[in-house]
Records
---
Amino acid sequence: MATADVDTAQTNGNGKYKVIGTRPIRHDGVDKVTGRALYGADVKLSGMLHAAMLRSPHAHANIKSIDTSKAEALPGVRAVVTNADLPEVGDRIAELGEGAVNLRHLSCNVLAGPKVLYKGHAIAAVAAENIHIAKEAVGLIDVEYELLPPVLDVREAMEDSAPILNDDVRTDTMGELGNTPTNIAAHFRYEKGDIEKGFAEAKVVVEREFDTATVHQGYIEPHNATALWNKDGHITVWTSTQGTFSVRQQVAELVNVPLSKVKVIPMEIGGGFGGKISVYLQPVAALLSKKSGQAVKLIMDRSAVFEATGPTPGSYIRVKMGVDAGGKITAAEAYLAYEAGGYPGSPINPGCMCIFACYDVPNGKIDGFDVCVNKPRTNAYRAPGATNAAFAAETVIDEICDELGICPVEFRLNNASKEGTRRVDGVEYPVIGMADTVEAIKSSAHWQSNLEGPNRGRGVASGFWFNCGLKSAATATVNADGSVSLIEGSTDIGGSRASLAMQLAETLGIAAEDVNPAVVDTDSVGYTDVTGGSRVTFATGIAAYEAGMDIRRQMIARAAEIWDVDADQVRYEDGTIIGPESSYTFKELAELVIKTGDPVTGRGASSAANQGGAFGTHCVDVEVDPDLGKVKILRYTIAQDCGTAIHPSYVEGQMQGGAVQGIGWALNEEYFYGDDGSMHNASYLDYRIPTCYDVPMIETIIVEVPDPEHPFGVRGVGEVPIVPPPAAIANAINNAIGVQMTELPMSPPRVVHEILKKNS
Amino acid sequence: MRDFEYEAPTALADAVELLAGANGSAKLLAGGTDLIDHVRTGRLEPDLLIDIKKLAELNVLEASDSGLRLGAAVPCYQIYGNEQITSNYSALADSCQIIGGVQIQSRASVGGNLCNSGPAADSTPSLIALGAVCVIAGPNGTREVAAEDFCTAPRQNVLEAGELLVELKFPAPGGKSGSHYRRFIPRNEMDIAVVGVGAAVTLDDSGENFVSARIALGAVGPTPIFAQAAGDALAGQPANDDSIAAAAAAAREVATPIDDMRGTVEFRNHATAVLTERVLKTAIARARGEADGYTIGH
């Protein structure tokens, strides 16, 4: 990595730690680079059937009837399922760790109920002896539709005259339900101070409107599930997921069996970014297995991934901000409307809470709306809701800075949230590093450099993400050779095996290589919430630390027994167990463990700890082709508060990966719909994520303001880096060619449109 | 994917017979870079695939004083790897270098690109600009069609039942000649042209004036477009910014683009003019033997 020359001392608490802050080879690395790691598509079981899905060709329709008889009659077909095979789950809400879901909506999303709400909506599935037969049988299913007009735009869907998607949705306004069916599923409002007074005190007030397109997480690996519903009623599911326990819960609820009847075995995961938490295929594969008596494997193709799995919402946002002559924010107001997709549940609330989170806003008002449209049901995507919001707020700030002649970095320093700042939504910050990230950019080689040449510009933007705690469990067993096996339940989407093993190693004073981390199935480890919310290195890290402390206590007790002294005369220091007269290294005592008594197994869990939040500030240089509107990223630097970087390479990798996804969101990614509600670009050819030719090496500055809630000061790092890029790039484009972009993506046709408008 | 038969004839007459005998249920397989994907996804369901890579006539690659003969099945990498093509038919080499990545270029053929007849095909504007003639064989013998007359609508062309494209014939460039093709794509790789422009110019001995020019446009109409008037008007004109700007404006006049996921009408019209200017400047620089300043992807 380009940043490998960074002095390790910078990132290990100035020598405070032995393992933390170093860069060992990841434990799962060899399998992954040699192709031996097993992903969802690699599952092969004896007698396994292959399944295919019938998906709706229409964006909005009532299903009048489904006739599966011809498909069932095709030789080689073993089972066909529709929504009629799913038990009635009722109008219940299930907590899934990171977000809640209405089970009836989830059930109807898995296999459409009375209506299809987006093109690609799953309707029926066929299991057959091979995939070719299954696909042929799908073509033999007759569905009679009653076509309904689709509504695709969030503001149109909010109008009284809009077609209603769900007749059971009522607007939830701060807990109070409306009376009539609507597409507006929720209205959030946050207020602080006196907004009128605040704007009256401002010297400059800027108000702008923004539109952002629907974008997808774009993981390489499609969704997958293999299920075996055994004759004894036990269901085993092999799947790549961000949360095995969440899959277990969703499958159990949707097929109506007790939790303990479902075992979920995690396969390696080829990217998730929030999109592999909700179930799509797992309950369907289970039902097909129940009907056929065989294991059934179901894998999505790419177009289904785009058309039917969780993108992040398109949005309409209005921001108004007032700043006084001294450059202090006096008031800020926002209106956000997010597209939920077919069923309620957009990340509108986090969007509302994040939009002004970087700054001390004395007077604020935020309104947010969750709105159903005929697009796939949205799901989490890296800091869900925050990127849309930051694009609006951070570009308005730049415009104000321009007008007042204030340096955008100084403005951000001057207004930065800090410990004790109260957000508009009421939360008061603990120790945070917002200002530290701005300072880091201010003193960076990038910011200090001169940018010369025509059509070039520089932009900065900051971003916030909460990060969460939730629940994790881990156990660790001491082996006779001095190694420790770490058993945990956080599926590894970002190098977490390594970061957890390192925290356990640090706790025990042994080498990272002497810890063998394993992510195991739901029958083999304590309850662990999803890999999401940038929580694993934090919360499962606490569990690993606690398991390590448990081992230390047991090792002390064992040594005391062997030496025949009181345990309080023995101490554990730097991997050595020290008694009054003698000492053991960890390895020496590990060898004696099973010779002298019970095996030593440590146990750790975490639930109470919550994170203080993560901030990042990005700086980008661009060059814009003034004739063709193409934006070239010349240089990109991120400063991010990571609390304490456990494995700096993976921290940097998260920062870089998030920024690259943000660059794609900024410049080219969008769901392109026809008027009939069909997505025209459901492939990687025309859904344009950046290639390696489109981004430079992203420079990273790790800022460390330790989070006191974690024994090593960890803050989650995975999500906040996607928040600032579109805003930073918009600010850079404006700086380069004097055109303020208010719509995402800032694709060449849109940039050219603004240039032509400006020149005419 | 449906089952199909596979034949790999070694004589052109056999290929024509198989094709004519299949009554429209056969597809020709050269590189297969489009065909196999269409069959895999079920967009096409042929009963018979006729592999034409074993036909000698379709593998000709011969550059001489009288021009260039390019077999319809010759893959892209052989084309841009041929020095005579890179120096005398540069637009064609430019096209072949940006069609797919190395793996695709090792299989995909210019003949296949033309016969798919996509409006955004990267090689077709170069064929038109370079004055290529398509040699077509069928049950009733052989005929020739100018490249600009080959495509008739999106995914449709002049080939009749039982006919196949055998080779493309290019006239030898005269005097001080240069050609170029470039496209606009939003990324720097892995994209279909939003607008593509190919041009070939011949300058007088001074290198200051146009003798002739041919300009062709891609992705701005239902078929690749021969912007004949734009090129013809350059004959006898000095090769300067004014004449280039006039040609660009004339090229823009014949573009009939649509709004789609790759671009808007406004953008495509605008980019047609911008690219025509840039392409003509590069072609002129090449005709003069000057550095052309072209890098792939921009």
Note: Chain B touches chain A through 23 residues (CB under 8 Å).
---
Amino acid sequence: MSDLRDLYQEVILDHNRSPRNFGPLEGADLQADGHNPLCGDQLSIAVKVEDGVLTDVRFEGSGCAISKASASLMTEGVKGKSLDEARAIFEQFHRLVTDQEAPVDPSLGKLAVFAGVRDYPARVKCAILAWHTLRAAVDDNHDIVSTE
Amino acid sequence: MTGVAGTKTTHSAHVLDETRIREQFPILSSTVGDRPLVYLDNAATTQKPRVVLDTLSRYYAAENANIHRGVYQLSQAATEAYEGARAKVARFLHASDPSEIVFTRNATEGINLVAQTFGRSTVGAGDEVVISTMEHHSNIVPWQLLCEEKGAVLKVVPISDRGELDLDELDALLGPRTKLVSIVHMSNSLGTVNPVREVVERAHARNVPVLVDGSQAAYHMKVDVQALGCDFYVVTGHKLYGPTGIGALYGRRTLLDAMPPYQGGGDMISSVTFEKTTYNEVPHKFEAGTPHIAGAIGLGAAVDFIASVGFGPIVAHERRLLEYATNALTAVPGLRLIGTAPQKASILSFVLDDVHAHDIGTIVDTEGVAIRTGHHCTQPVMDRFGVPATARASLAMYNTADDIDRLVGALTKVREVFG
């Protein structure tokens, strides 16, 4: 087992304590709910889209430090991106937290702090929940997303 | 296994010898990374003593044959071992006769069996089934399915802030349409031990039968189904220091006789033609197909093991340990116990400030301490206490004060990480 600090990096703890873009989004164009039945994590992602660009992204809900920080950093990471760019970041992030061998993609920026999750397979679902939920929102899929 | 294995006969028959008990569980000497394993997730499943492992191995190596079929000696020996295990489980639960014990996959299947047989033949539109807020999902969903199918109503007895069943509300909910009360003996997320005898008396006063979910209770305390007076009692083998995939349902003989079969197949019939099939007698009527023979025999060995240690020493040991753990955990800054009923056993569910249970679970795991985190298949309990999840340490006969110290030590690491 690797060092706990690799998992609970300062940036993650900070976003857990003070999540960014947290709260309701007035006039959201798209929205989706996600939950992780095993942990009881529940969150909802709301976005505004103009000309194919995510002009605002906010989230609400409760969960563990990993899922909350992941949602918070995701909102920062995709705001201002096009839908296609957001989908591409999703794929990179997915590789980051699941593929033990993959090199960390420098274009992920701050999101790279989640690389430690790959050593904790039980926690991958926590890190990925917000992303699955975002994808459901932008793909206009309003079924509740479950990581189970 | 000798008759008094694990008890310190030189001092007192009621003192459990921790070292001798622990030696019998091979997994307890394993490590997680470089830390010795501290296993505190017994409410999910207990570890297995060597005698159970040896019994399973011996059965497959030397006694394996299908049962109730062959005329050859090996099959007869396997049949005797399987039926012998039924008699052991009957003795363990203090049933009046082995025919009142039906082997199942687990406690969940026991409850579903009753819902699908007794329930479907007894519960009709507008009838009611009574459960409580502290039920495991396995004692909620089978009744929801039944009520949905029949147009019946599920009634829920509330619990107090300490996690106690509200008996006055139970009385209020029992009515002319109540067909069954199904209640947990000991809560898996709160530790509460319910006054089952009183529940049964109140229900029986209105001619309502009672099913008791004994998944948690049966490895912490002596269960006497006749003294409790209940009509059904379900247990699961893997929480009785036995194998997974095997459980048992106790049913009062008169009820079992009147119930329709559960699943159709071999072994549950006495004769089959395309015009008419007659069913075998109980308990075989409820055991279609080749059962988990090895599992049943392993469960027999497990309940014999528990009996050889004795509930006197087990209860005394776990009570002392629960008190020790309760004091140690409440001394942890920011820790709050969920489930503080005066009548409770062997389970410590807690939350720690605003740290999510899942983060606690990961961090203490790095110290070799295995606890459960989440809703413990009791989401209504989490809702009742307004928490998304709890961390849960649950004790078994082989746990020690040292295990608790290791848990408390690991919790200080949670503080270090989260500040």
Note: Chain A touches chain B at residues 1, 4-5, 7-8, 13, 38-42, 62-66, 120, 122-123, 126 (CB under 8 Å).
---
Amino acid sequence: MTIDWWTLAIQAINVLILIWLLARFLWRPLEASIEARRKAAEATLKEAEAMRAEAAAGLAEIDATRARFAEERAAGLAEAKMAAEALRTDILSKAAEEAEAQKALARTALAREAEETRAAWAKAAAQLAVDIARKLLAHLDERALREAFLGSLTRELAQLPEAARRSLGANGAALTAVSATPLDSTEKERCRALLGEAIGHPPHLAFATDPGLIAGLELKGPHVIVANSWRADLETIRAEIGHDRSR
Amino acid sequence: MNSPLATQTLFHIGPVPITEQVALTWVLMVVLSACCWAVTRRMSLTPSRLQAFLELVVETVDGQIRETMQAEPAPYRAFIGTLFVFILFANWTSLVPGAEPPTAHVETDAALALLVFLAVIHFSVRANGVSGYLRSFASPSLLMVPLNFVESITRIFSLLVRLFGNVMSGVFVVGIVLSLAGFLVPIPLMALDLLTGGVQAYIFAVLATVFIAGTVSEGRPAASDNAASSNETERGPQ
């Protein structure tokens, strides 16, 4: 076996050239590509890391905003609660005032209605009393009744103070004897005599008739009226009843 | 059939004979360079399947160098990787009808072994200087200098003989079987040649890496020497 040294040298040179060629066309471009991909991956990772940090910051900001919203909501709720409470108090006070006013109105209306009812009942009672009195009067002897009222009139005059009694009909003042039914002449004389005896001097007496008295005999002077009739009694009774009710 | 031990000259350029293996090597160089240029001229961050495969090859070569040498693979990638690629495709040219692998001739294998021998010296001197390279022969002691020197020669011869013997024997066996048996009978042996060619390319590249790594690491100053020299530097002239 012989070795061709020329071939050996040429093959060595060929391999050296191939090393250079492949280094230029294979190894370096591939290494550059791998390096570029590695850098791109690193850049992507850094970018992803930055985005993750940014997202974390965004999340933190969102959490802070949510917390702020919660605080604002709580404050708003508290404020609304206070406003509602104030409004409720205001409404309640107004309602209480209105209720009080309504109650006062109702009381007034009730009082007026009660007064009207009482007046109606009083009127009805007075009318009833007048009717009863008229029915009683129909069963009584009018002359005896007038005699009785004349007697009671003289008693009323006797109970007056002496000075007041003496002033009745003094100085020629006219007195009027008012009866429910007309008096006959005998009764008029007797009345004049009894009144003169009561007041201490003969009176200047006139006679009048007023059926509204129901029954009775009243004496009217310029300054004094001596009420002596059932109407006056009924008026007195009604006034006393009203006085007792108001008391 | 010609003997695989004989070289067949195709033509002469002046006094230089151009043999069949040289011509085939030129064809291989052109094809490999053209394919690599065609593939790598349009690289993108989103790789095609071919680009991804080539990047996988690069990563594999880098990983092998990194594991073997415990160093960054960039300075050694072109040499080791090209050795592997060239030997692999040169071995596989046996599949081309009428072509005989350049590695089946002792001149090509000797040229490859010579380049490994020179690369060992080059990388060792570049890493540790001339003294470092010479110091690598005295590892682990001065008594080992003759043995290490002989070993640096013999291991290169072992590379040469291993590659040449395996590839030449494969071609020889296929030729003998082809001359004795039918046309399709050598196919299993040719398939075995493919496997053998790949394995031999891998072994050659790995051994070259180991030889370079051994010389580079053995040429480094010892830890105690480093400490002494650093102490001298810190003390300074008095």
Note: Strands of chain B lie at 9-13, 16-19.
---
Amino acid sequence: MTALKRVLPYPLLFLALLAMWLLLMQSLSPGQILLGTIVAFGGCWLMVALDPPPTGLRRPVAAMRLAGRVFVDVFRSNVAVGSIILGSDERRTHAGFMSLRLDLTNRYGLAILAIVMTCTPGTQWVHYDPASRVLMLHVLDLVDEKQWARIIKQRYESLLMEIFE
Amino acid sequence: MSPMILGWSITAAQVLLAFAMAFAALRFIRGPRAQDRIIGLDTFYVNAMLMLLTLGIRSGTTLYFEAALIIGLLGFVGTVALAKFLMRGEVIE
Amino acid sequence: MSEAPDLPLWAALLVSFFIVVGALVTLIGSIGLWRLPDFYARLHAPSLGATLGTGSILIGSMICFSVLQSRPLVHEVLIALFVTITTPVTLMLLARASVYRDRIEGNPGPPEQDPEPTEL
């Protein structure tokens, strides 16, 4: 294990870079696999030089569940925002800012939460203060703050905490 | 039969995307503030990338794919630089 | 109509469906960019085109090329990955830059202080 760690410090990153190279080249010939391996090794050693704080994907099942939820929510919020855009003028005036105290502190978890919330139309991550752990966000359809807080905390944050903490 | 269906639907998609680009361009022209213009430009980039993909489907070559990838990445870099400029007044600190 | 690849009927219908739906969603997002009243509301509009619009057109493209070359061609996944990772970054940066500017200039858009956290 340690020997493997020394040669290949980031096995997942290595596989991802190799896959990206082969997808870009659109071939599976031995030459391209060799080139891709070299590129992926270079990328891994660059990461060693950058020395990011350690992370681990401990719960692949929870990660898959999160991906499924995000997939469903992207559909739902697309429909919701689309109907707001095409609807009457009155429906477009409920937008507003709100704040939320997060229990999640892991940096990778916060990054994923930020991407998820911005990717689903209707919620927009604006600012997170790590000292007070308060997140400010902008919501397009802000009728009930409590409901949005519940969605974010129960649908995403609990799963992210399960994955990263 | 099927080339005709596909041809017509690609044309329809391209017309829709052209309108989408027009709306983004309108926002870019009208502003009113710098950040409105930047978001218009960013949307314009994404729409142009999708337009290239539909062109690629029509021609049946994967060449357009690379162009779309480059447009997507350049749009990202450009928008980040502009947003950074709005925040600080300079791009490189 | 001008030339288009010769796919089997089922594939042509599927590809047509996906690209028209994707283009429509993208158009709705761009209309939102035009119709929504202020900058912070407009921030929500581009992500329509960047998520469902892009995804749908890319799925159409994937089906088309996989059938044409009769082997799975999934390099469009790369564009989808890049777009889903980069669009949130640009939107977040723009939101923060705009809040910062509005607060300095004293514009009414964003609140002076962060609103009180909503507790459950």
Note: Residues 60-164 of chain A form one domain.
